[in-house]
Predict the structure.
Amino acid sequence: MNYSVLLQSKILNRDANVMVIGIGYVGLPLSLAFSRCGFKTYALDTSSSKIASLLSGVSYIKHIDGSRIQQALATGNLYPTRDISLATEADVIILCVPTPLDKHREPNLTYIKESINSLLPYLRQGQLISLESTTYPGTTEELIYLPINERGFTVGTDMFIAYSPEREDPGNEVYDVTSIPKVVGGMTPHCTEVAALMYSQIVSEVVPVSNPKVAEMAKLLENVHRAVNIGLVNELKPLALALNIDIFEVINAAATKPFGFVPYYPGPGLGGHCIPIDPFYLTWKAREYNINTRFIELAGQINASMPSYIVTQVTRVLNSTNQPVSNSRILAMGVAYKKNVDDTRESPALAIIKELLNLGACITYCDPYCASIKKHSMFEGHSIEEVKYGRIDYSSFSLTLLLTDHDYFDYSEIYQHSSLIVDTRGRYTPDGKVYRS
């Protein structure tokens, strides 16, 4: 039996069943995309609360409207589940599980390993397995191909394996999972062919590459590129301030060049699960070959130092008005790692708030996108207050600290009623009230 031809035929006829494992910021949009295109899609997660939310038609991700889930459920194509044994019914299995770093900044691949170990008893001939989690070059071969090969499958003949890195940008209203080109690298040419056909059903463009390692490295290069360039502008920000130059004006001026320059903007640090984390997968792998990735490590150091720099600037601004940090009332606007999302993973805002609390400041925060952070482990032993947007008395605070520039905020109102503003996002023009940091 030609399993490649059979699977491609099922894909083209929308008879292929899809299982997405891990339905967070990457897996949920992917599940909705496949179900919308007519594929029966098993959205699998170990979280009972996520499954319950989906079955109720409720979104647990701010930028994904619940109506999309309700529509998918109504078609009968979306099947939220915790039952891994349903993998036997899936023709395509896509892994979108977390790949964090441990405390030593080394890859924690537990979720991939556990997913594959759970899947092995339920795999059958004629399936495609695609990994989307960001990881180091060689992961697909080491953690997916080898155990499946040892199980007796012939990869490229009766089982197909590929790597296709996620390119989700939560909150981006221009690009979504269907409009962003999809890089695909299979273990064999047949694997690439099958995977590319599958993804072409939901995305506008598929970019085949020669093998999974290329695709894995391409994803890391994308994020290293951003981390290094953000590190560069974060390094230039204090210099520009010392020279009494507006770094945002400088960047905007440079961005008028129609070639050879891409604008990156400074901020309070790097956040999210990708940019602060992923480059160190490459650093870790490079050590195996006795290669130092100095640009990556230096950019990481600069970006990681930004929260402390912001705290220093807040201290300086308060001191300029004869106010000590200790016992000062500071309003932190936004705690998400970037605007218009509800994700606080690796958010520099949290690190800044913690440092200010350690200095004795009284912190109140407001973020209409994020659930309460008062019980976050970072703030153990500290008291932190939350205020709902629309109920803020800006004049009661010593300083308003803009950490996340959600479009939801009324910036003219913030400016009008605040005594002092430290702006880490470049929303305001500096004057006697506003200080850029």
The chain has a mean pLDDT of 94.
